Amino acid sequence: MAIIIDENCGVFTLHTRNSTYQMKADFRNLLLHTYYGEKTDNSDKSLLLFQTDRGFSGNPYEMGKRDRTYSMDSLPQEYSSFGTGDYRITSLRVQNGDGSQGADLRYTGYQVQKGKYGIPGLPAVYAEDEEAETLIIRLEDSYSRMEVELYYGILEELDIITRAVKITNGGIEDIILKKAASMNLDWEYGDFEMVSFYGRHCMEMNFQREEIHHGIQAVGSIRGASSHQYNPFVLLCEKGSDERMGSCYGFSFVYSGEFLIEAEKDQIDRTRLICGIHPDNFSWNLSSGDTLWLPEVIMSHSGSGTGRVSRNFHKVIREHICRGEWKNRRRPILINNWEATYFKFTGDKLIAIAKEAKKLGIELFVMDDGWFGKREDDNSSLGDWVPNEKKLGCTLKELAERIVAEGIQFGIWLEPEGISEDSDLYRNHPDWAVGVPGRKPCLSRGQLILDFSRKDVQDYIIEQIFDLLDGIPVTYVKWDCNRAICDKFSRMLDSSRQGEFSHRYVLGLYRVLEELTERFPKILFESCSGGGGRFDAGMLFYTPQIWASDTTDAIERLSIQYGASFGYPVSVMGTHVSMVPNHQTGRVTPLSTKGCMAMAGTFGYELDIDKLTQEEKAEIKEQTDVFKKHYDLIQHGDYYRISSPLEGTCTVWEIADPSGGEALVSAVYHHVQANPVPVRVKVQGLKDEADYQLYLNENFEEKYPGKRLPHGFASGEVISGASLRQFGFVVPEAMNGFQAWQIYIKECSCSCE
Ligand code: GLA
C-alpha cells in the first residue's frame, strides 16, 4: 500500500520504494505539509514542527487571542494561498466576487483510487492500475465556496509522486484566478541548492547550481512556450550532495507553455518551492460551477544523489509519459536535409541523398523546410501546406513513393502553428494570426503565429494536415514552431478573458496533437521549436522525441545534452551528426566524436552525403552498425553521468544494462592537454562478482602505432566488476583534438584466477 491514512490524526502518508511524503489536516483543518524525503515510518511528523511567536506574522482570528505561535506565515503548508496571512510566495491568488483577494483553504475530505488519475486535455503520467494509486484531497474556502482538489499519483516502484490541482467555483459569484500553481512544497529544514537549466536558441540546457538564499529565486517563461531560456525542470539538492550522495529532489512540470518555478528562503530559513503556470500572462475567470485543471508536476526524491533522481525521471518519461506505437519500438536512424541543402534543393537531390544514405545503414529520410508554397527562404508560405511540385519535380506522393522505393522511409517537416504574412492563409484569414487589432505585431524570423486558442483554427489545421498526409507513405513528422509568442490576444475571447489566452493556446496545441497522433498512430512525431525551445515533458506525451538544439557542434552538444540528461532520457533527445566545419560554430571535430555524441540520443545525420569521402562514408556505415548493435542498451539502459563538460578535460557518461551484463562508456575530450592527467572512470551498474572485458571502438594499435593503451584494453584482459566499480579504468588519452572513445564493457564467462 502506497497510501496510508490515519483518519483519527488526519495524517496522510505516501510511500514509494525509497521515499515518503506526508501531510496532515490539523485541528483547524489546515492542510500542513509535514515531510518529503527518505523513506520513513507513518508517524505524525507534525509533532516535530516547532512554532513560536514570530512578530508581525499574524494569527488566524480564532487563534490570535489564545495562541500567537500559530501563523499561516510560518506553518509548512501543502497548498498555500495569498491574502490570508501567508506573506511568502504562495500557490494561489484568487479575486473573489467582491474584489477582495484571498482564500482560506480548509480540508473537507479525501478519496483514494486505484491507478493513476488522468487530466482532461492535458498531458499527464499514465500507468496500469496495478502500478499506481491516486489520493485526492479536497479543500474549500468557505467564504467563496471555491473547492480545490489536490491530486497525488503514486508510482511506488519508480519513486515517483505526481501532483495536479483541480479548482471548481462552487459559489454563486464569479471568481478570477490570478495565480494558480500546480505545486507548493515547504521544507522545515535544510540548506538547499537549486539546479536549473538556462540557455538561448542554439545553446539550451546550461547547467547552473546555486545556493537558495534569502529572497526569491525563479526560472520561468513568458514566451508562450516552455522556452530555450529556462527549462521547466529543476532539482533541489541538499548542500554537499553530488551525483552519488545526498538528498536531492527533482521536479518536472508537464507543461509546454509559460511557467514559473520559484524558490524562497524565508525569514526563519525555511524553503518553499512553487511550480505552475506563469502568473504574469495568466488570469482565469471561473463562473459559478466552472472547473479548471492545472497541469501536472512530477516529483522524485533520492537519498543517493542527483544520478538516481535523473534515472527515476528517465524511467517515468520513457515508460509513463511517452506513448504510442514508437514508445518502445526501435526508432529509425534518420537523415535530414536541413544542413545539407537548407532551402535550395530539388526532388532529385533529395532522392540522391536518400539513396546514398540507405547504403550507409540509414533508415529514414526527412525532407525539412522549403517543400511547400513558394518558400525559398523563411519569409513566406507558412500556413500554405501545398507541395511545391515545380521544385520537387513531382507530387508529394510521388516523391515519397520514389524515396520509399529506394528502401528508406520518408518523413516530412511541418510548422503548423506558423503563419507568414506572405501566404494565402494570411490573405484569407488575417484575423487568425495572433496580434492585437490596431497594433503592428512583433515579427520573429519574419513570421507570425496562428491563434491556436481558437477552435476553428485548430480544426482547420487538423484537416489541412490530415489532407496533406493521408495516403502518403509518411512514417515521420517533424513538428516545428519557430518563434515565441507576444502580442497575446485572441479575437475569440472577450476583454475580461484575455488573460486566458496563453493557457488556451497550449490547450489548443495539445488538442491538435492528440487528434493528429490518433489519426496517424503509425507516424513517429518529433517536436522541435528552433531546437529545444519547447523541450518538456508535456510535449513528450504527444511526440516521443524532441530535436534538442539547432546546434549540431559535438562539443557544444556536450553541455546541452549533459544538462538535458538531468531530467530527460536519451531516447527523447534528437541528436544528429553534421558536417565540419560546423555550421553554427565553425569548429572542426572528428567524425567519430560527432557519432559518439549523436549516439547519446535518437541518432541521425544532417549533412550532404555527396560531399563525403569514401573513408567518411565507410565510417558512417560503421557508426550505424554500432548504433544498431547497441540500440537497446543505449535507449533503455541506466544512464550515469561520470564527469561533466564544465570541468576537467573529458566528459564521460555511461549507459549500463539494468541487469549489469554490459555497459557502454562514452568519453569525449573537450579540452586537450599536453602530458595529460589520466581520466579515470569508476564504472557503475555492473555486478561486483562478475568478470568483464573492455573493448575500444577503434583499432588503437593499428591507428596509433607506438602509443600505449591503459591497463584493461589489451585483448583478453579480464577485470572484475568490483574492481571496475571501486578502482575503475583509465580512458586512453586524446590522440587528436576533441577525441571521443566509446568503450564497450561486456560480462565474460572467463575467470581472472
Ligand atoms: C528550425 C529547426 C531546424 C530546421 C529549421 C527549418 O530552426 O530547428 O532544424 O528545421 O527550423 O526552417
Kindly describe this structure.
The chain folds into three domains: 3-61 and 68-320, alpha-galactosidase from lactobacil brevis (Beta-galactosidase, Chain A, domain 5); 334-636, TIM Barrel; 640-748, Immunoglobulin-like. By secondary structure, the protein is α+β, with helices and mostly antiparallel strands. The protein contains 16 helices and 38 strands. 19% of the residues lie in helices and 30% in strands. The protein is globular and about 85 Å long. It has a nine-stranded antiparallel sheet. A nine-stranded parallel sheet has the order 28-27-26-25-22-21-20-30-29. Strands 5, 10, 13, 16, 17 and 18 form a six-stranded antiparallel sheet that branches. The chain binds alpha-D-galactopyranose. Alpha-D-galactopyranose binds at residues 338, 368-369, 378, 413, 480, 482, 528, 530-531, 547, 550.
